[in-house]
Amino acid sequence: MLRVPPARVFAPVLLSLAALPALADDDRCEHSRPIPLEPDLKGVASIRFEIGASELDLRGSDGQASLSALACVSDPDYFDQLRFTQERRGDTLVITARRDGQSVGLFFRPTYAYLKVTATLPRGLAYEVDVGSGEAAVRDVASLDSQVGSGELEVFGVAGRVATGIGSGDFLAEDIGSLMVRSIGSGDAEVRGVKGDARVGSIGSGDLELHRVGGSVEIGSIGSGDASLRGVRGDVTIGSIGSGDADIVDVTGDVTVRSIGSGDAYVREVRGKVSLPEGR
C-alpha cells in the first residue's frame, strides 16, 4: 500500500549555494597576516587539501594558478602556531593548513587561531578535500573526493564524480556529475542536481535530501535518519530502513525497498513499478 506522508519538515538549507563561495565572512580576525605559497604543479595529477579547523575557498580555473592563506588570530603570539605547507606524494600535491598548539581563554575572552585558504587551481585536476571542524567551498573542478568531520563542505559545478563521507557535519552540493556518499553519521547532506547516478552506502541518524537526479539512486541502509528523494529519472533502490523514514516523490523508473523496520516509506508519483515489503 502506498503511504501519504504526514506533515513534516526537512532540515533547511544551511547556506545558500547560489551565493558560492558561501563561507560566511568570519569576523574572528582581530589580528591577521597573509601567507603566500607558490603551488608546485609540475607533473601533478591530483591535489589534496587537509584543512582541519581552518577554512578553504577553492575554485577551478583555466587561468593563472594562485594559492594563499590569511592567518587569523586573537593574539599575535599565536601566529607561530599556524602552518601552511605543501608536499609532493607521488603525483599528488598535498596542501595542509593546521595549527600546532593550543590557546587558553582568559576572563571568558574567546581565543582562536586559524587559516583562511584561498586557491585558484587548474580545473582539470582531481581534487581531495579533508575537512575536520572547519569549512570549505569548492567549485568548478573536474572531480572531488572528500571527507567531512564536524565541519561543513559546499560543492558546486563539478563535472565528474563527487564522493564524500560525513560524520556529524554538513554537506551541500549542486550541479554535479555523479554522487557517491560512503556514509552519513549524525550529519546532514543536501544535494540538488546530479546528472548521473547517486549512491549512498549508509545513513545513521542523519538526514539526506537528494533532488533532481538524472540517473538512478541506490541507498544501502537508513538507520534512524531520514531520506527525501525527489525528481529521480531512473530507479530508486533502498536496501533497508530501520526506524527512520524515506520520502520518495516523482520517480520515472521503479522504486524498490527491500526491508522496513519500525520506520516507513512514503512513495508517490512513480511511473514505474513500486515494490515494498509485504504489508507495507
From TrEMBL:
Gene3D superfamilies: 2.160.20.120. Pfam families: DUF4097 (PF13349). The keyword Signal applies. Keywords: Signal. InterPro entries: Toastrack_DUF4097. The keyword rRNA-binding does not apply. Residues 86-259 form the DUF4097 domain. Residues 1-24 form the signal peptide. This is DUF4097 domain-containing protein. It comes from Arenimonas fontis. The lineage of its organism: Bacteria, Pseudomonadati, Pseudomonadota, Gammaproteobacteria, Lysobacterales.
